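During the no-cost extension, the postdoctoral fellow (Dr. R.K.) reprocessed legacy sequence entries with the updated structure-token encoder. One reprocessed record is reproduced below for audit purposes.
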Amino acid sequence: MRVGFIGLGSMGLPMAQRIQAEGHELTVYARRPASLEPFAGTGAKVAGTPAELGAAVETVGICVFDAAGVEEVMFGPNGLAETLEPGAVVLVHSTVAPAHIQKIAQQAATHRLRVLDAPVSGGSPRALTGELTIMVGGDAEALADVADLMSALSNHVVHLGGIGTGSYAKLINNTLFSAQVALADEAMKAGRSLGVDPAGLAAILTTSSSACVASAMLLRAGSIAALADSPANLPLTKDVTLMADVLGDAPGKELVEVARRFVTAIRSS
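Re-encoded structure tokens follow.
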């Protein structure tokens, strides 16, 4: 496929590289020239604006930080909506509030564009090997039309329902991750209060039945404060806040309350 990609950060860059490695014709756009340097000499095309990119491709992946960024590259001056062919599929890999992605999809439909919310999980190493988990909300026919592209990125594509459901799933996932970090921190506090050797307890908690990716991250770092400069910090704090807004007082709010301990600790560190 002729694929465009916008958002060449810690997740977007390896995703775009994987797309090209799998034989798709890649066009990229970035505001910062430094973001384009990894594609120098690779055969990837570089567009000067999102509109220029849209004119050259059949489908686009967007992996910018937030909903405002998605709206800018879609509908702002020289945006994708000006030039993408009717029927083109736009994959929004950014994690945004479900209401925002629904609004974006509705606006895109006025340009006869099809939007799928398709947030990802797995980190950059798995992006490079095509082993991401992709949580998809939107039209099943649109998803089928980009099946080859999705298979290049993921060995675990899950279609969850209508537009917005992928974003719900990603927010739940990241909120649970944050809660697990907070609980691992509480477990270490409990160990210290009982006189258990911290290094030994950390070794137990990373290899026993309670082990998980989130607690392992906390135990490697040693404390939540040590995670303040982690690349995961901003996305997790953003997503827990979004989840709190989405969930309100509905069942499951206790998960958000635990996850907020992580956010509070990060902000105070």
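Residues 78 and 112 are 17 Å apart (CA to CA). The domain at 2-162 is CATH 3.40.50.720 (Rossmann fold). The remaining legacy entries will be reprocessed before the final report is submitted.
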